[in-house]
Give the backbone structure.
Amino acid sequence: MKRNEIANHIVSRLEAAQEMARQQWKKSGAINFFFVDDVLPLEVCNAICIAFPKAETMSVRKSLREFKYISAQMNVYKPILEEALFAFQDARVVKLVQSITGLTDLQPDDLLYAGGISMMAKGHFLNPHLDNSHDKERQRYRVLNLLFYVSPEWLFENGGNLELWPDGPKGKQITVVSKFNRLVVMITNTKAWHSVSTVCADRQRYCISNYYFSAIPAEEREYFHVTTFRGRPEQRLRDIALRADSLLRMSLRKLFPKGFVKTHHYYKK
């Protein structure tokens, strides 16, 4: 399927769920989010899952912060992956998400800076963190994270679920299961601490990720921060190490506003 055909399905589903999603967004508290299930026809979502590449063709990120496989170089994989990913950047989809969230000037990112596809297997995790506040050139705010899950029959007990921390990484988290054919849209700002629980099942958890940017911040004031990681409440030593790591990277960014180390995670067209 081409991206416009896939986008047709996304638009239809979002239109049907628009009011429910809008209410969920408004009532979700400190970290605004909504999710919509059954976004694509079953056969399309299954085809996307089957098309996911093997881990050795992706980049691995393994540290105290995270353990997962990622890629943004979509033209080296089966076409349906790129078509599905960019379907979420269709102007009609962006307009509907803008209507639901009330955010303005939403702009999808065709360079997939920090977006793309990810795969997590048994033992993989993503510690509580705030996403980098800006785009690659530090010109626009990163305001929304769109996560589309495509692992069939994914259950809560499998782990690998999205966690939101409205009271910060020392508080209590809200778990959103990485359910098959589910789209989660969440705000990204100075309060949007989130993580992915450790995968417990001996299988793969697949996700297609998009970010929307805007010239207007997702808060009432301007702000800037690098991707900032913390330990979980029970990870005291890791929390100290990650706080120090974040402080160092933030200090370097003040000296080098566009980054000290050149990022390679974007779509090189």
Notes: The radius of gyration is 17 Å. Helices lie at 3-27, 42-51, 79-87, 91-101, 236-255.
